[in-house]
Amino acid sequence: MAWYNYLTVEIPFLFCMFGFTLLGPIMTNLHVYRTCYTLLGFNESDCSQLGNEDNSVTRWLEPKVQPTVNKINMVNSVINSSLPLIFCMFVGTWSDKFGRKPFMILCYAGLIISTAMSTVIIHFSSLSPWWFIISSIPNLMTGGVSSLMVVNSAYLNDITTEKNRVIRLGIFDVIFASSSVVGNLISPYLLYATDYQTIYLICLCLIGASFLYTIFFLSESLKSERKAISVEEILNSINLKEIVKHTIRKRENNARAYIFCIICINMIFAFPMGEMSVGTLYLRKQLHWTLIKFSRVNSITSLGNIFGTIFGTYVLYKIMKVKELSLCIFGLILQSIANILRGIATSDYYIYGALLISIFDGLPHLMIRTIMSFVIAPEEMGKIFAVLSIITSLEGMLSNLVYPLIYNATIDINSGIYNFVSFGIHILAIIAMFFLSRLTLPRYKPSQEDEQNKEQNEKRKTPSITSVNNFEVSSINERRSSKVMMVDVDMRKLSQTPSLY
Fold it and tell me: Which residue ranges does the record assign to the Major facilitator superfamily (MFS) profile domain (predicted)?
């Protein structure tokens, strides 16, 4: 068997994500630099020092440039949240019906076009950062990286067995994390050795390699007799009404009320995701961090998050048997403390302390989805989690509008006030969690008819294709008793991935 049959989607995904994270750390720098001299008319040589030096010139320029940069980032964040949302909602169902490979190629094609457009924009130094928003549209119209991850996960589920699925999906997660670490580390040094346009060209080559590899070396994981896909067929496969209907239908033992409570709590503690849109600017102004310091800290943070998730799910949850709601509260308390430390930061040590206790940030999200899986029938998981992802994405759009407005309004008073807003929201979520812990968990119990259907399906032993919307949301408890690893696509985690443009 050829070597490329052992690793399939992992190889093009590695190329793509490495290029993606290579650009991530320098994007704020580029936007600040271009805004400074193209929109605000400051001296270009002075503007070039922003993010690279810490002196009286940069300390004077930062608060003058940041409000305009914030407005650009705000518009960019809203567009990046809205357009891929529509595509991401249904790409799992579409790829179930029409195959995984066409949508992979489509996502890579969008990335290539957008990166090429950005490279051209960088070449013309007189163009303002607003042009980068225009260049991002092809990528966003094809679903972006979030859709690519969903389809890649579905592909892996198709081609793996119970024996090797854990390893393959583990490799996929390691690639995502390691590309972030390496990209963040080398990006500033590569920038200082070359320039912005060279880095974009490198990224374009990497994504181009992913595109070609997918076309020539990846085979379709789903065997379908259809060879042509029409737009009409794709649109007809959308059934949003059914998704919403399953979410709001009546259930036994007050399960519907419990589900609504969980969704509301998720909405509360998910809202502070907007602080990521201003966090970099805050540290630049408050502590005068440079690009190199940002890149090092981001790399360490990525490693810390990996450790925190593994320790929380394996040691605390699986071995020590800590309850799901207790882990949610634990994670939210640590996030609240981190908000305070960032808000009162007068030196780097406050930020380092906040980053250290933030390694368990992913626990509340994971535990909430695990609790949901106890209450919901397996065949309904995909539909209800689709609604949850839609709500989270829409909330992200609102959050990315609110936090920049708060930051701009308080930049001359105390630019860290947004951290105390997040603190208040997290405290509200903790109180709601305590209230929920007083209620009895209405666990789902399959009916007699469901058990009979399950037995009939097992007797048939016919292989079935699992929709990405189903396999991405199984609970940890199910994983304990099964070797089948399910992928949980976290919209908030994706929102932390820096924009290419």
Answer: 17-441
